[in-house]
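Sat 14:20. Reprocessing the chain from the morning session after the first attempt stalled halfway. Input below, unchanged.
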Amino acid sequence: MTEAAVRERPVTSRQIKVGDVPIGGGAPVAVQSMTNTMTYDVEATVQQVYDLNAAGADLVRVSVNGSKALKGFREVVWRSPVPLIADIHFDYRMALGAADAGAACVRINPGNVGNDDRYRQVIEKCQETGLAMRIGVNSGSVEKKYREMPKHEALVASALHKVEIAEEMGFFDFKVSLKASRVPEMVEANRQFRQYSDAPLHLGVTEAGTKLSGSIKTAAALGQLLPYGIGDTIRVSLAEDPVEEIPVAYGILSSLDLRHRGPNVIACPSCARTLGFDVIGMAAKVEERLKHFEDHFTVAVMGCVVNGPGEARDADYGVAGGKDDGVIFSKGEPLRKVGRDEIYDALFEEIGKDGRK
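Finished this time. Tokens:
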């Protein structure tokens, strides 16, 4: 894949590695998701890991919620094309087992993993095996002693307590997440945490919802944090096939000019000046075909020959429809005029001339 240039942003975190993937310290924002298969169903889990990786996931989290799952996880690890994060709740012994099974990282929830002694045992195992940890704090399961505080403050207090223990033990190979289902709470928690720690941050809105609402909430939250150097890895948590999370994640990163995967399609919303040219249908058709391209470039679908090329002058390629014909253009300059029925094929002929793929 061709990696396009991205904008620079402040570096506010130190760097760790999850497997061979650098997190924080100026590294590209890593994209991850989580399997929703039963981990003991090894074949289904491995297939989903491969599907997520093919879609662009750098990391994949897998639930290890019991001895049966742990046994399956062990096999999934050695068959996985990407580093795996073991997701641990309630039973800290699953974290110890996942470390021995070859996990690249273990995610623990301070609100339910047990007392600090058990947490220290997990840290010792991470130090022994050389794997990373994610301290994953959720607003819905924050530790009891912090529950009377405002939620964003409770998230920060819980995370900082665990950070302090880890650093006192000389363990720094961890990242932190502070998640809430309400965007303002999640944003404020991550902003406040960054004032006290340079640990890499994993960002996400927990229980974000279905594809439309979850994507909106996540974009609203990440757009307030990532450009300012807050956030080093992300997940878009959707009530959907997890593979569908990955294009949304890259869409958010690309819109912020932080990381690109594949082409970018822009289109006008359509109006009476289109003179019957189906902007909406053409844009959908173009976007669908471009899903198979890896290079990053911008394609514009505009409804008006008069204004379209000028308004989309930054696009690498574009079409502007008219009453009976249309114009194929590049960087605002017309390339050729074609009949309306030829617009789609002519556009991709021009894209093909430059060897885009």
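Residues 16-255 form a domain with the TIM Barrel fold (CATH 3.20.20.20).
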